[in-house]
Amino acid sequence: MVAEGASERLERLLFLRRVQLQELARTDRWIRQERLRLSDPARTGERGARPAGPAMGARGWVVFTPEPVLDPPQLHVAGCGVRTPPERTRRIGQEELTRLAELGATLCTECDPLQNLRSGRP
Ligand SMILES: [Zn+2]
Predict the structure, then answer these.
(1) What's the 87 CA to ligand 1 centre distance in angstroms?
(2) CA of 74 to the centre of ligand 1 (A)
(3) For residue 69, how far is its CA from the centre of ligand 1 (angstroms)?
C-alpha cells in the first residue's frame, strides 16, 4: 500500500508538471504577442513621426492590425486583393516588414509578402 501511495503521488506530481509546462508555454505566447503588439505603433496609439512610406503609386507593404489586439498583425503586399479596413492598415517599409515577420506576424498567403521581398520587386 505504501508503494502504491508513493506511485500515486509521483503521478500527481508528473501531472502537475505537465500543467505547469502548459501554463509556461501560454505565458510565453502572451509575451510574444505583447512584444509584437508593442512593436506596432498603430496598436499603442502612437501618432505622428511615422517612417515615410513608399512614394505614392509605388508598391510596398502594409500591416493590418486586427481586433482583438491579441491576434497577430497581418502582413500584405500593398494592393493585395485581401481587403483590410484602412483605419487599421498602414504602410510599412522593408525593415519593418522583416522585423514584424520575425516577431511572428501573420503572412498573407494570397500575396506572400516575404516572397515578394525576396524577389526584389515590391
Ligand atoms: Zn495579402
Answers:
(1) 17
(2) 8
(3) 19
Q: What are phi and psi of 8, to 5 degrees?
A: -65, -40
Q: Label each residue of 51-108 as H, E or C.
A: CCCCCCCCCCEEEECCCCCCCCCEEEECCCCCCCCHHHEEEECHHHHHHHHHHCCEEC
Annotated domain spans of the chain: 1-45+58-122
**Residue 121 alpha carbon to ligand 1 centre in Å:** 15
* Tens-digit pLDDT profile for residues 9-18: 888 888 888 8
pTM above 0.85, yes or no: no
C-alpha distances in Å from residue 80, one per residue of 45, 59, 68: 25, 10, 22
* Alpha carbon of 52 to ligand 1 centroid (Å): 21
